[in-house]
Amino acid sequence: MEDAQLYVSANALQRRDALVVLTEFLPQMAWQEEGENILDIGCGSGDVTRNLLMPLLPRVEQVTGVDISQEMVNFASKTFQHNTLAFRQLDIEKTVQPRQTFPDGFSKVFSFYCLHWVKDQPRCLNNIYQLLQPGGEALLVFLAHNPLFSMYQNMSEKIEWNKYMQVFNTITLHTIFTTLTTTTTATNPFSSSPIPSDAIKAVNPFLKRIPTESQDAFLMDCLNELAKLKTQQEDGKTVARYNLMIAHLLRPE
User: Fold this and answer.
1) Is the pTM of this model over 0.85?
2) Which of 69, 79, 221, 235 is the most exposed place for a label (fewest CB within 10 A)?
3) How many domains does the chain have?
4) Interval 100-130: pLDDT, tens
5) What is the DSSP string of 208-241?
6) Closest by alpha carbon to 42, among 92, 84, 100?
7) In whole angstroms, how large is the CA radius of gyration of the chain?
């Protein structure tokens, strides 16, 4: 997931789900009169942060987008500049004492379609807890299940690909937060037949590990494995159903 331009062109599903969730949950959050310091974890190419999240926020002093990929951060900084927006490189899973990087912390933390890639969930959520100011709120949106997970599992069991792949751990919420709302939502992605390879390529965490000369074969094998999962058909189009986890969390005072 290093190709920011490709991700911008192929993240319609992520933008759609983020908009639905923000529309529902932003009115439920408490907002300070003087403005707030906002963090977006896993900002990627920056388009969701700048064009979707920021216009919906009722009161903003500063927004910071962080991502594990320096390439994504560079693209976001160049493409989505704004006087109240900054992008920084940060690995939310592996960082130690994140308040050393952001001493003032944040009153609100958002994350869209990021945390299902994180292996050490307790450490990640502890870092989010540390970054939140007392009384601050987090809204975390990530995949609980997706046909891609089954596809990656099947691919990792193949001799030609298993050395390049890792299996993701099951996501669980840690108990350091007060959970205001945790809900699993079944929904449909934008569908097409066949599933476009760009959509797979844009969010594939293993592709950069594959030798360049084998990447096309790897992507084709991914598409073939998806086809074997017998996804449902609606109106002649392939529809992949997935479960979306939405966690609205509060750091106690």
Assistant:
1) no
2) 235
3) 1
4) 999 999 999 999 999 988 888 899 999 999 9
5) GGS-GGGHHHHHHHHHHHHHHT--EEETTEEE--
6) 92
7) 18
